[in-house]
Structure formats: structure tokens, C-alpha cells
Amino acid sequence: MKINIEQEQLNKGLGIVGGAIENKTIIPIMTNVYLNGTGNQLELRGANNETVIETVVECIVDEPGCVTLPYRLLSQLVAALSGEIELVLNPENQIVKWKCGNRNGSIHGLSGDEYPEFEFDNDGDNLVLSSVDFADMLEQASVAAGKNPGREWLESVHFSSTALQSGDGFRLAHRSFAGIPFEATVPARTISQVIRVSGDADQVGISQSGKSVLFDFGLTKIRANTLEVKYPDLIKAVPDEFSTVVHVDRKRLLRDLQLVQVYSGESSNRVMVTADSFGLRLYSNSPELGVYDSTVEAQVEGSPITMILNAKYLTDGVSAIKGDTLRIRLADEGLPIALDSEDDDYLYVQMPMYEK
Length: 356
What we know:
The protein is of the alpha+beta class.
């Protein structure tokens, strides 16, 4: 392999596939990035046990060929260079010599033939959406994905024919959307990579391939291995009836919640929320930091109610909703609250905390 490529192009490609490459793995070659020079482009690929990311960038290929190189070393090197880079592979020892201006060096690699093969063919139906709109939906739907290695579905986003959703046992994010032609549960870490690369394309094709979901952005493709779990019907957690309904300016409430978090601290993250005829009161009392107390103007219908909520979770939900006016529905003090907006197909549900 012998190629000449602009630093900007190589740096961009490495940045895209790097999200799937881990620093430590039991298979040494998987810490490498796969490079394949063919035609007038360089194909780059990175993978882990959940995700495969593949992209192509423009280059001049004098001699086609493939190799895998240590990702961390190559990405740091390329980031520090500028201008045109020449890469020449010696197939006898898998050493790549590089040259950029008056700088040069070498990198020890492993054979590209030893890198696993990954299929990017789908099983049939392919849904095409605006990549920006799809990323917005995924950001909303993944808000409630938690970190619980013992229960994989808590760290995932579930795709169904009617919605995208996530839940961590304390909250639920539910983005209504009719159109996904399959049902699958995808790790949230993979979803974050899909969101990350979505800005580089106008459209995305979404399809299923066996036990994988494919996201095709044209030059970049992501293959997500799905989880073999039975995803629960989380929407059943939403109460059928509510005793109190609050309508409040979303941005104003968000500003106050951000201030609440300054006082609530990482250890407790508790805020007392009271809805009554005076509006929506937010109260936090930290023995270490002090007291925060504010009342946000709001329209409150129904019975006065007070409950304690996780301030960070509440901020996450208010941030994810797109509309200007937020509706908060509350039932009994021990039941979940529901947040939504008339301007959005999104529902966020949060469990209250209990007084210690």
C-alpha cells in the first residue's frame, strides 16, 4: 500500500471510526484501526464487541493494500501534523513508513488480512430519514439510559414500530415515532456514536441485518449489535390519572433547575418541588452549601402537591423537551410524574425520591 492523503482528511476519518476503538481489549488487533487504500479513497474501520464504524475519505492511491495500525499512536501523530501525508506499507514486515514535509517515521502494524470481516448488507426494508431529525429523536430517546452492567436493557435504546425509548429504573424517555420497520434493542454507547457522526450527512438509512441494526450515512456506516433481551413495556409505569397539572415556561424552569443543581450537590441531587396556587416552588437545603429557594410562575390546575425529585434527572427531562411550554402532570406523592409538551411527540417520566 502506498497512498498520499491530506492531513485533514485522514484526521477526519480517524475521528469518525475512533469512537468504536477501545484502548484495551483481549484481541490486540482490535485496538488498531483498519486502513485499506483502493481506487481513489482510503477505507477506515474501527470496531468493538458492540459497534463497527466504517468510513471512507479521499486520497491518492499509488499502490492498493491494507494494514492495521495502533489507533492511539496514529491518531495522535496525525493530529500533530499538517499538509500532505505519505504512507507506504512494507508487506513483508507490516511496517508503515510515513512522511509529511520534512518529518518522517515508521509505525509497526498488523496485517489487514487478520482483521475481522463485517457485513453491512441489510435484510430488506430500509427507512430513510433526515440525519439531523433522527439524531434529535435519538438524543431525546436516550436521555434515560443508565449505567448498569448487570442489566443490559437499562443501558440501551429500544426501537419499535411506534417509539424509541430508554429507561434506567428511575425514569423513562419515550419518543413516539411510527416507521421503524423492525424491533431491536441497541446499546446506548452505540447510539451516542450514531448521534456523533450524524452531522456529516444529510440522510441516514436505517435497516436490520440479522442480529444487527445498520445506520447508513453514505460515506460512513455504523453496525450495531443488538441485545438479546426482552424489553419491558415501560410506558405502563405512567399513571392513568393525575391530580395536578402544571403549565410552565420551559426555559425559565430550566434556568432555575440549573441553579438548584449548584446547591443540591452531587451527593444528594435532591430538590423539593411544590405545585400550588403560588406557582412551582423549587427548594434545596444542603447542610454543606446552604439553601436555594425560588418560585417559578406557572399555571397550576388541581390539588396542591409536594414531592422530592432528583434534580439532575428533572433537568435532563426538561432539557430534552423541545416545546416552549412544559406540561408537568403529578399524581400521588409516591407515583411517577410525567413531562411533555404540546409541540413535541415526547414523554419523559420520572420517579420521585423518598424523604430520608
